[in-house]
């Protein structure tokens, strides 16, 4: 038996148990303390139906720490959610073979800002179009604009840039050059916009042709916006939606756990960075 066990790479006791039929079947996962966690998980999943188990874990641990309780491991969250059918359905898609041209993420805040647009249709047919500026390091949405049944203009982009500079630097000009990354849309490449950007201390940068993934941080946020907010919210008309958009951006900045920020929200990450500075 020793030779057989060594050949198979298993212990002799394991082999003996299999031969005699004395191995115990694996029981279904169960932990008595899960009864306390389950209602909290159920409430979070109901409130955030598009969140996977890792983001749900981040929100749950945030709540547990606030109550003075110990956090739980994401693997335990997965097992509990799996046992009670709370996991998201897997979605399989083939990714296109596109090359990534350019490094987007930065090592500090206010080194590179990214900007892009978004669009969705209300139930009554009205179209909401908007644009935003997001920091490539801390992922906070600094400023945004939205319009109804029209396109985002160069004036909207310039107003958004000015607001972003005022929020981050408290003045009308950045303290150091900040790269402003966007696609090649007409509002961004307009001569007036490029001149205004430089006056604010921004350095306009544009993604290569046919390479939108080079502005991947903006693209990822648009996906998050539609998945976690647009697709799970009633959109009867533009007037109603315009009142909701500000709340969506605030919720994202304050609460959305980001894998690139160690499952912290943008403002949690900024606060932690400020505390250690």
Automatic annotation (TrEMBL):
<protein>
    <recommendedName>
        <fullName>Integrase catalytic domain-containing protein</fullName>
    </recommendedName>
</protein>
<dbReference type="Pfam" id="PF00665">
    <property type="entry name" value="rve"/>
</dbReference>
<dbReference type="InterPro" id="IPR001584">
    <property type="entry name" value="Integrase_cat-core"/>
</dbReference>
<dbReference type="GO" id="GO:0003676">
    <property type="term" value="F:nucleic acid binding"/>
</dbReference>
<dbReference type="InterPro" id="IPR012337">
    <property type="entry name" value="RNaseH-like_sf"/>
</dbReference>
<dbReference type="InterPro" id="IPR036397">
    <property type="entry name" value="RNaseH_sf"/>
</dbReference>
<feature type="domain" description="Integrase catalytic">
    <location>
        <begin position="92"/>
        <end position="274"/>
    </location>
</feature>
<dbReference type="Pfam" id="PF13276">
    <property type="entry name" value="HTH_21"/>
</dbReference>
<dbReference type="InterPro" id="IPR025948">
    <property type="entry name" value="HTH-like_dom"/>
</dbReference>
<dbReference type="GO" id="GO:0015074">
    <property type="term" value="P:DNA integration"/>
</dbReference>
<dbReference type="InterPro" id="IPR048020">
    <property type="entry name" value="Transpos_IS3"/>
</dbReference>
């Amino acid at each position: 038996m020793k030779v057989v066990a060594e050949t198979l790479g298993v212990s002799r006791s394991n082999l003996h148990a299999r031969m005699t039929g004395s191995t115990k079947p694996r029981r279904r996962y169960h932990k008595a303390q899960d009864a306390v966690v389950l209602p909290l998980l159920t409430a979070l999943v109901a409130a955030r139906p598009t969140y996977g188990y890792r983001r749900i874990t981040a929100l749950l641990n945030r709540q547990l720490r606030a109550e003075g309780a110990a956090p739980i491991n994401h693997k335990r969250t997965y097992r509990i959610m799996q046992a009670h059918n709370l996991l998201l359905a897997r979605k399989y898609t083939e990714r296109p073979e596109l090359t990534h041209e350019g490094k987007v993420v930065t090592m500090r805040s206010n080194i590179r800002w990214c900007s892009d647009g978004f669009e969705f249709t209300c139930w009554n047919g009205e179209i909401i179009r908007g644009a935003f500026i997001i920091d490539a390091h801390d992922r906070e949405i600094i400023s945004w604009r939205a319009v109804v049944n029209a396109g985002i203009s160069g004036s909207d982009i310039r107003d958004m840039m000015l607001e972003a500079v005022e929020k981050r630097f408290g003045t009308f000009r950045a303290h150091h050059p900040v790269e402003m990354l966007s696609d090649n849309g007409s509002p961004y490449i307009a001569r007036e916009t490029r001149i205004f950007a430089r006056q604010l201390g921004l350095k306009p940068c544009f993604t290569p042709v046919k390479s939108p993934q080079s502005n991947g941080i903006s693209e990822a946020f648009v996906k998050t916006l539609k998945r976690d907010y647009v697709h799970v919210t009633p959109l009867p008309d533009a007037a109603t939606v315009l009142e909701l958009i500000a709340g969506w951006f605030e919720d994202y900045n304050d609460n959305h756990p980001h894998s690139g920020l160690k499952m912290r929200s943008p403002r949690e990450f900024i606060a932690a960075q400020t505390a250690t500075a």
